[in-house]
Design a protein that fits this description.
3 strands; 3-stranded antiparallel beta sheet; 2 helices; 43% helix
Length: 77
């Protein structure tokens, strides 16, 4: 078993994540034709990255931006 939980791919996690459309529950960074296709379960984020580290950085940026917007909305309420 790997020490890196992010490299694990439990089937139940992915099945549940793909059924929760609209939420940023999981992002995937998959190799496709020499690039990396990046997708989020929210359905509003699909990008292509040159390599896996770039894809991971973009995924972090996506979730950070969304979190900051949601926190700002809650503060304004």
């Amino acid at each position: 078993m790997s020490d890196d939980i992010f490299s694990e791919r439990p089937q139940e996690f992915f099945q549940a994540s793909f059924l929760t459309n609209g939420y940023c529950d999981a992002q995937t960074i998959l190799p496709v034709d020499g690039h990396y296709a990046c997708h989020c379960t929210c359905g509003r984020w699909d990008v292509v990255a040159d390599d896996e580290p770039a894809g991971l950085a973009l995924a972090r940026e996506h979730t950070r931006d969304l979190t900051q917007r949601l926190l700002a909305q809650r503060s304004a309420s």
